Amino acid sequence: MKKKFTRKDLKEFKKIVLKRKEEIFDDLKHISDDTLRKSQKEASGDISGYTYHMADVASDNYDREFSLGLATGERKSLYELDDALKRIEDGSFGICSDCKGTITKIRLKAVPSARLCIKCQQKREKK
Question: Model pTM?
Answer without folding.
Answer: 0.68
